[in-house]
Design brief:
Order of helices and strands: HHHHHHHH
Number of helices: 8
Structural class: mainly alpha
Distance between the termini: 24 Å
Helix content: over 70%
Shape: globular
Radius of gyration: 14 Å
Length: 128
């Protein structure tokens, strides 16, 4: 998973300076989860960080206009990320990766990587 989050790690100090305290703490926890390949935690924290960045009144949000905020935080990827997190934490029935199958770890790994990609795209956009 190293290469999948290299941009998050590469820009970590820039991000910490621009994110609010809530988002900064979640980012630190997310990086630890990535290093430990804790796939469920990666998905949950990626979606949580995504939402905290939107709602925390930090420098990065203040630099975006309404159209940019809507474009990023209402995208198809953003919706997928929130939906996937909610499938995990609000059990309402069977969900991929949590069925007790041998392939579950592969599904969770793919979803964790997709979560990191979505979050990385957001972070790149807001740092530009």
């Amino acid at each position: 998973m190293q290469s999948k989050y290299s941009n998050i790690e590469k820009y970590y100090f820039d991000l910490i300076k621009k994110l609010g305290p809530h988002a900064s703490r979640i980012l630190k926890e997310l990086l630890n989860s990535i290093k430990n390949e804790s796939y469920l935690t990666i998905i949950i924290l990626s979606a949580t960080l995504f939402d905290v960045i939107k709602n925390e009144n930090s420098e990065v949000i203040k630099n975006l206009n309404g159209i940019e905020i809507n474009k990023v935080f209402s995208s198809r990827d953003a919706i997928w990320l929130r939906h996937r997190r909610n499938q995990i934490i609000h059990h309402e029935g069977a969900t991929d990766g949590l069925l007790g199958n041998k392939t579950d770890i592969n599904i969770l790994s793919l979803d964790a990587n997709k979560s990191i990609k979505i979050l990385s795209d957001l972070l790149y956009f807001i740092l530009k």
